[in-house]
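User: I'm putting together a teaching handout on how sequence relates to shape, and I'd like one worked example. Could you take Carnitine transport ATP-binding protein OpuCA from Aneurinibacillus aneurinilyticus ATCC 12856, show the sequence you're using, and then write out its predicted structure as tokens right after it?

Assistant: Happy to. First the sequence, then the structure tokens directly below it.
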Amino acid sequence: MKSKLHLTGICKTFGTLTALDDVSLELSTGQIMALLGPSGCGKTTLLRCIAGFEVPDNGVIKIEGNNVYDAHRNIPPEKRSIGYVPQEGALFPHLNVAKNVAFGLSRTERQTNRVEEMLEMVGMEGLQKRMPHELSGGQQQRVALARALAPSPSIVLLDEPFSALDAGLRASLREDVRRTLKQAGATAIIVTHDQEEAMSMADVVSVIRSGKIIQTADPETIYHYPEDEEVASFVGEAVFLPAIVRDNEAQSIFGPLPVNQRCRIVDGEATLMIRPEQFTVGEPGEGTPARVVSNVYFGHDSLVRLHVSHSSSEMEISARILGMKRFGEGEVVGLSVKGSVMAYKA
């Protein structure tokens, strides 16, 4: 795929604080990327550097093969062909919906039906004359997205676009936003600290921590094959336990387990990462003995908390199981692990 955005060696400091440390990224045409990381990790600073609102200390930013920032040039934001959706939409309060969407269009484009097309795309047709204060939070975000997409920018940047919305609205709106971006053929970057948001919306996820890109991959790879323990715990629930690795096999409280081939670990002491859904809860004698501590039923699945005591090791783990089966507190079961596990050097 053709590269739409290419970053090389981007660094940015604010006084003694290093916000970005040698960041390099590439985004292909039509891809949606999620920049995922905790608060203060540098993701919004990176977005603002791409947009031109912040000036990096060094590095190169290319959009469609053209340098918009390097040691000798810094193209201003309005000439970078970028659509920007800030937190909470930030609509112009004195302009109605139609005029907000038309704001970035040329006089000629405003004479076309471009505004109506964009409002229809985001499900806001018929509301052209509404003022921002007459809209819900979700509607304001839809209008902000329509405004960003209207001039057909090279890249759309969304900075925590759902952070001000309640959980139920966030879930439904992010599906609509992804559909809209795909329908428009847009190349986009979404900044978020919400792993569920990143996994459900993005084609590729880039995990950023302390100003560094730790791992960039598709959501499935990020979840199943995280780069380190911190990424593993950040992108989902995980169980960590000690083990000894020999010849790609881990000896643990659950007996011998195959180590995934993507692991870089060599033989020796290790920490295993197991996702809750990898555990199988069976009858006593079918695996390592475990005692049920609690059972939380969600309808589509259950999260079973178990106490495991084996030789000199004791721990509590969470197992996620599908279906109707429920376990009583104190019940003794057999616990086993399916599939390979990730192992990290202890």
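A couple of points you could highlight for students: Residues 3-231 form a domain with the Rossmann fold fold (CATH 3.40.50.300). The two ends are 39 Å apart (CA to CA).
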